[in-house]
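Minutes, project check-in

Agenda point 3 was the complex the collaborators sent over. CS summarized: two entities, 765 residues total, and the question is how they sit relative to each other. Sequences were read into the notes so everyone works from the same version.
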Amino acid sequence: MGVSRIFVAGLGAVSPAGWNVADLREALNQGEPLPVESVARPGRDQPLPARRVPNPALRPGFLLHPRLRRASPITHYAAAAALEAESGLRLANPETEHWPFGVVVCLQSGCVQYSCRFYEETLQNPATASPLVFPETVYAAPASHIAALLKNATLTCSLVGDPATFLHGVSLAARWLVEERVDACLVIGAEETHWITADALRHLDRPAILSAGAGALCLCREPESSLGVELAAITHAHTYSTQTSRTRAARAMRGELGASSPGEVLCEGLGASPRADAAERSAWRDWTGPRLSPKGILGEGLMAAAAWQCVAACDAVAARQFKAAKVSLVGSNQQAMGARFAGISYPSAPKR
Amino acid sequence: MHFPTTSPPQLPVRVVITGAGIITPLGLGWKSNAEGFRAGRTAFRPVSLFDVSRQRVKTAAEVDLPGDLAPTRLDLRRLGRLDRAGKMLLWAAWEAGRLAGWESAEPLPLVLGTTGGGMSLGEAYFRQALQSPRRHRRQATRAVYYQPQVQARTVLDALGFSGPVTIISNACASGGNALGHAWELLRAGQAQRALAGGYDALCQTVFSGFDALQALSPTVCRPFDARRDGLALGEGAAVVAMETLEYALRRGAPILGELIGYATAIDPHHLTQPHPQGRTTQDVMKRACASAGVGPADVDYINAHGTGTVLNDGSEALAISEWAGRRAADLRVSSTKANIGHLLGGAGAVEAVICLMALREQWLPPERAFETPDPACRFPVVHEPRDARVNVAVSNSFGFGGVNATLVLRRWV
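CS then shared the predicted structure for the full assembly.
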C-alpha cells in the first residue's frame, strides 16, 4: 500500500459509431447525431427507434474463442472494448500479460436479448427452452468471458445500477489497485439493444433513443504505462431519496467537482430529453467552459453511455485537447456521481 | 470523495455484526429460522408462484410472505410496487436495523447481492408487452421497480436511511460478495457501519433455466451425498447490520458475531462449471482464512456452497479436503441448501446468518437427507442435529461465471 495515484492506461469503445475509440472520436468530432434505425416490436406496426452497433468491418479474432461461441452481443461489445483498452496498456508495457488483472463490468439493463429469448421459449414450451442460452442471461456472464479471454484476470465484479454506477466501478478498480490486489484493472460499461428495452425507455423517457455498445477504461498505478491521464477524483455517490431529489443530488455532485478551470472540458450526460436532462442541466448551468455531449450523438446507451462519457473525456485529455475533464453522471434512478480526469505533465508523462 | 480515499486506519479494524434479518422458506426472523436449521427441517413443496406443469421438476422452497410487512416509512402505494423479492429484502433489512438499534437519518452504505432483483416484474412486463401490446397500465412502474437499485433505494427510504447503494451481481456468489465488500469498506475506514445482504425471489425464468440445464434434482437435494442428483431452488433474503467494533462498543450495541475474514477470486474454467480440482476454491478459502488470521485447525464448521450438483460438490469436496489436510477428518461441513434450496443471490448472505446462529447458539445445521458420503469428502457431513462448540465458521459461495467468495465468522463472547 502507499501508492494512491491511479492512471488511465488504455481506452476502448464499441458504439453505434463503430468498434473502436477512433470511430467514437470521429463521430463526436463530426457532432451530428448518428442515424436512427427501427426495432420491430412484436404486436405493433409502429417500430421503436434505436441506434444499433454496426457489424464490424472484420470479424474480431477474439470471437473465435470457444467461450464466446454462444455469447450474447453485450459480451461481444464488452469484450471488444476491454481488449482495446487492455491493448493500450500492453503497447506501453509488453510485460503486462503476466500482471494480475481485475475486471469490473457495470450494467443497467444487462443481458436482455438472451433473457427475453429464454423467457419467451419458456412461455412457449419449457421443455425446449435452450440450456445453452440460460447461462448467458446472468449479469456476471460478460465479466466471466472477459476473464477467460484475458487469462490473467484474478478478480472480477459485476455491478448493477443506474449509469452513475460506472464511477462506482472505477472507484472499486482504484481501490483494488491502491491495495495492490491487481496491477491493472479494466472497468467496462456495456449494454445491448432489444425491443423491450426500447419499449421501457419509451415509458420512462419518451424522447430518448436507445443505443448500445460498451466503453472501457484500463487503469494502472504507473504513470509511465499510462496515456498521460490521471484519475484525479471521483465524487461521493449522491443517492436520490425522499430527502434528496435528483436535482439536489446533481448539484451536490457538481459542488464537489468545483468550478471550471482554464483548459478543462465538461463531459456531460445530456441527451434529447428536456425532462430527464433538467437536473443535470440545472447543476451545470453556470459552466462556462467547453462541453462534450456524447449522448446527443450516440443515443441513450444506459451504462454504455456513461462509459463513453469517461472514454471521450480521457481521450480528449490524452490527445492534449484539454488539460483536464470533468465527467458528470446524473443517473436515472439511483445517484449522481462525477469524476475528474487530468493530464499529467512531464516528467511523469508516459514515453509513448 | 470516493477517490482519492482517506488513508486506511493504521491498526486493523475489527468488524462486528450487530443485527441480522433473515427471511427464508423456514420462516421469518432469527428464532424460527434458528429452530428450523437446528432441527434440519426442509421446506420444499409444489411450486405455486408460476406454472410448472410442463417442467421436469415441480418443487421448490417458497417463502410464506406475511400479509402485513413490518411498519416502515413507506406508504401503501410504494409498498405495493415492490415484488416478492423487494418485500423480502425490505423485511430482512428492517429486522437487521431493528436488532442493531440503529437510528435513522444517518448516512449508511447499503451493499446488496442479487442475481435477478425484481425479475418477476420484468417477466410481467414482458408478458403484457407480448400479449397485450397496446395496454400500458403498470408497465412504467414495472420498468422502474424491477431494477435492484430502485428496490435498494426503496429500502433505505423505508427505514429512513440514506447513503451509497452498491448492487453486486456475481451470480450465486453475490450475497457473500456483498458482505465481503461491506467488510472491506469498513476495514478501509470508508464507513463506520453498513447494511449488507443478499436476496432473490423464485421466478419462472430462473426455475426454467436450471430445469433446462437439468441441474434441478428430481428427487431430494442431498449435497455431498454420493447419490446426489441436483439442486433445489428456494428464495429468501438476509441482511446484516455491520459496524466497526469501536463504533459498536461506543454505543453499547449487542454483538451477534464478528466477520473476521473474506476473500474472492475468479475461476475462469467455465461459465457454469467449477474447475474439477477446485483450485480457485482452495485459494479463496486459504486467503480468506489468512485475512482472518486462522487456519484449518481453528475452523469448527464450514457452511459449504454445496448445491447438490455432481460437479459443484465434487469440486468443493476436493477443495475443502485439500485445504483442510489432516484437519478434514473432524471438520464438520454441511450445506443448508439441503433445507431451503439454493437462494442464488441471497444464498451467501442467508448462509452467513446461519453461521452466526451456529456460532451464537452452539449447534450445527444438519442435512437430514444425507446418507452416503461422496468419496471426495474426507470430512464428516453433519446429518443429525447436534450441539457443538463453534468458535469459527466459514461460509463458501460460488457463482455462474466463476466468482468464488469465502467469509470467515467468529463467535462473540
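Noted in discussion: The longest helix of chain B spans residues 84-100.
Follow-up: revisit at the next meeting once the mutant set is ready.
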